[in-house]
Amino acid sequence: MYMGQHVNVVVYPISSGRLINIGAFHANEELAGTVFEGPWVENVEKDNLLAVHSHWEPELQAILQCVDKPSRWAIHASRPLKTWTYGGVALLGDAAHAMSPQQASGAGQAIEDAYLLATLLGHPATTLRNVHDALSIYDKIRRPIAMEVAERSLHNGRLFGLQLPGVDLEVDPDMLPNLGDAIKDNWKWTWTTTVDSSVKEACALLVASLTSNTRSSQTRYAINHL
Is residue 120 within 8 Å of 202, Cβ to Cβ? Predict the structure, then answer.
């Protein structure tokens, strides 16, 4: 990764090492929350790509010279939703939490959505009568987690662009190690947490809701019987 003020460039192999993918992210924070005017993806001239990075180190410029057909992409994210469910419908993946790619976690979060939702819907305690409870539990467990990941991804993008809160790195470059620590701390959740605890909690809530609903039904029956 190459890092500069409000810009970061990532370079990594894809297609079993046959190709190299290059992503040059240029942040425009003032556009956050606005409607993007123009095409979301468009081809650009190679000279344009080289020109905006002409002041970077020779190593990066040599890498960019290898790009045959550069394209420019607008990075979009969805606003946080108040709920992911309505009636018998549930959202997951980008439909629920489209996020910036600076933690490379959007697809992973979609998989965790699907895993937890499938576990709840396939649970022996789930029936047509209480499927809405299962969806509600899915929303309760997954939505805060995915929203936090989305926020962390935005924060990562700022850190990759040398935007350490409260610090001007151009004035105080000795603080650069603090930037590295901040990036590591912001990414720590990826190796200290798993989806397993969420699935366990969701299943426990589902069983608890079934017990609660059974008791409520028994109480209503007793009152009606009297």
Answer: yes
Kindly report, residue by residue over 2-28, the tens digit of the pLDDT: 999 899 999 999 999 999 999 999 998
Q: State pTM to two decimals.
A: 0.87
Output phi, psi for 12, to 5 deg: -155, 150
3-state secondary structure of 8: strand
Nearest Cα to Cα of residue 90 among 104, 106, 110? 110
Chain centroid, CA 113 distance in Å: 12
Can you tell me the distance from the alpha carbon of 123 to that of 136, in angstroms, rounded to the nearest whole number?
14
Give pLDDT tens digits for 135-159: 999 999 999 999 999 999 999 999 9
Q: In sequence order, which residues have a C-beta less than 8 Å from that of residue 158 and are 6 or more positions away?
A: 27
Can you spell out the DSSP letters for 133-179?
A: HHHHHHHHHHHHHHHHHHHHHHHHHHHHTT--TT--TTT-GGGHHHH
